[in-house]
Every structure is written in structure tokens, then in C-alpha cells.
Amino acid sequence: MFSSERPKSGQPRLHFPGWTPDDESWLSRQRGLHLLAQGAFAGIRNLVSHDVVELTEHEALEQMAVLSMVARWVDETELVEAS
After folding, report:
1. What pLDDT was estimated at residue 13?
2. Angle of the 24-40 helix axis to the 57-76 helix axis, nearest 10
3. 17-53, pLDDT tens digit by residue?
4. Environment class of residue 75 by beta-carbon count within 10 Å: exposed (0-12), middle (13-18) or buried (19+)?
5. Domains of the chain, residue spans
6. DSSP structure class, residue 18
7. E strands, 1-83, in order
8. Letter string b/e over residues 43-68, b meaning 16 or more CB atoms within 10 A of that residue's CB
């Protein structure tokens, strides 16, 4: 979903606006979203959904901050479909 590759038929992408193939800043940000989202789901969401995890208030706030960042970046993206 967050891949920096062009969308394929049946595989739309969420891309930050302003995509150009040689824009290293765009590519870095897109890859960052992709990796941050993967890490957040693997390291935060999956752990608390599979096990009873006791978090301190500080740990919970840190995890909420990561998820909030992912959500904010997703809000900035646009759905791009294969043409």
C-alpha cells in the first residue's frame, strides 16, 4: 500500500503528493512511511493484539506518538491507482 513503486492493476498505492521518479526527498519520505507503518504494526499493534502487554504510562504515550505519526502521514497521502 505504501510502496514507492507505481501502482499496478488491483494494487493501488498511498503516495505523498508530488511524485517524480528522481525526487530523492519524496522517495525518502515515502520509504520512511512504508517502513514506519510496518514497524508500528509489527512492534506495537501485533504485540498488544496477541498478548496481554503491561505498559507503563510513558511506554503507552510513546507508542501512541508513533501511531499518531503514521496516521498523520497517511492523511497527507493520496490514493494513486494504475492508469
Report:
1. 95
2. 140
3. 988 768 999 999 999 999 999 999 988 877 767 777 7
4. exposed
5. 13-80
6. S
7. 13-15, 78-80
8. ebeeeeeeeeeeeeeeeeeebeeebe
* Dihedral of the alpha carbons of 18, 32, 39, 72, in degrees to the nearest 10: -50
- Residue 49's alpha-carbon distances to 27, 43, 62, in angstroms, are 31, 11, 17
Specify the amino acid at residue 13.
Answer: R
d(CA 13, CA 5): 8
What is residue 6's DSSP assignment? P
Q: Is 13 exposed, middle or buried (0-12, 13-18, 19+ CB in 10 A)?
A: buried
